[in-house]
Protein 1
Amino acid sequence: MMGGASDDWWVLLFYPVVFWVPFGPFVMAALGVWHAREPGLWPRLWSVLLPLEPVVTLGVVACRPGKEPGDYLLYFGGYVFGITVLPWLLGHGITRAVLAHRAHRAHRARRGGATGAGPENA
């Protein structure tokens, strides 16, 4: 022990876990939007690599031998799916739906089907 600090350096791995809980859903939603707007290697790579450290670190702790089966369900359901996967799917899906709707409206406007801005032309 040096200077009153602990020698457990692995505790530093938990700082991203603490920040992932409040900010992770927003980051994953933004990555989902980025992937929907520009599909390719970089958005897909960032969508996998960015949440890897906080998710795997907590997974190692949550899925130790001797844990109850409910702990696994809580980890995968709440942390992996609820905080990481679901916001990405929502950001990606909503962006794809909006882009498809805009493309459909632009196609109808080019054909001359929509001239006004009323709800019947949306």
Protein 2
Amino acid sequence: MTLRKSFNSIFTVLLLMFPIIRIYASGIPSLNLAELLMLILLSFSLVFLINQRLDFNQKEYYLLIIIFTFIFLSAISALCIINFAIGDSLLRIVKWLFYFLILLSAKYFLNKDLAVRLVKAITIIICTFLWIQLIAYYGFGINLTFRIPGLELNTTQVDLIVTSFGNSNIYRPYSLFLEPSHFAYYASIGLCVFLFLNKHKNYSMPLFISISLVASTSTAALVFLVVIWLYYSYYKLSRPSENGKIKYLTFILLFGLIFLYFLKDSVVVEYGLSKLSEGTARTDSASTYLSYLNGFTQIFGVGIGNEINYFFDNFGIEFKFIHGFGYVLVQSGYVGFFVYVLMLFLIYFKTTKQLRIFVFLFFLTNTFELCLRDIYLVVFLIWPFYFVSYINEENYSKV
């Protein structure tokens, strides 16, 4: 194995393990362990990029437009808003550029065969650990956690393990992550890889992952699960070459409907649906913050990283967590929001139908949390950005 191939393998493993490793602290402020390791790795990558011709594909240009639009709008806000938090803004922008650099680096260093195999393996592992947690809690009353000994967590805020709902206590398993929603994001990506990047389908693993997503109690898991299977049905039925499999697909759909019918009275599903109905809370809070903005800040935003400082200095209120689209509206205004949504639509339609589901899931993730400046920007978009030619090769069916 050459040095370049070894580096590509290390990069691929770290990238796809990133969402799990990032829960640990690095000992350096503002950097988690995964970010530190990737920063070191990208520094070494310069050796291989010295003679590499760098170029951008069309979807990368769309993402660049988003980035430069947001930075430009933040610069305008910095010039017009008194007491603009320039330090916080620069820190957020640098971190955002760091994740964009990781995505661009995947073009040159991602081992696609290894990536597909690894995502499948990790997804099976995290789903298995989720069921082990469920069995340990409901069978033996033990709250089982899986952590690497000797490493400190990157946060002191861990999602609630048990929450009350009606007359029941709901245990919320989170596998190797810190909260069920992050499990849902990764498992959903794994489900898509099993469904859309396998030429010869075996539905046992997709069904196992689907049941695990329901058991996670995550609202995002329920939404993603329905979207993925609906899109997969549409995708299969829209292909003339798949007509011979319609009967089998019909069986899978009927199985899913029967499965959901028996789960409709399940307290776990009821809890997930109740969280979905309460999901407007984050939307409402975004609307509340927007109501404080004047004409200028509604159009151009308060600037990336300046939201906490802006709302406290001007209105004496604490800026709390809102969903990703809410952040875009507050930080970059209606102009930034329009550009962001437009570019995502362009990326979606410039992607082959087989891989559009990843773009759509990334879009949906913005309704739950800010993923634009996060590792999920990378793990959702590497597939539509860099696997279009890969799925046209015969070797992908062997992975």
Protein 3
Amino acid sequence: MDLKFTASESGPIQVSFEPIGTFFVLEPDESIYLRTPIGTLDSLQVVWWTGGIEVWVDHPGDHTVLDENGTELDTL
């Protein structure tokens, strides 16, 4: 399953993946995707704050971050 995270038109945001510590800065209207097995969805935690999104992944190695074109950016 792919989860989409998009920066609003008002400015850049930081999307971080914990506890790994990987983060990406998205410019306005830019998106990234987290590809995760459906079986791990219940363990994901997504927290939003002004200027950012934090995603906690409990099963390292099972997740892939993709850009808007589907190109792999990182494996978590």
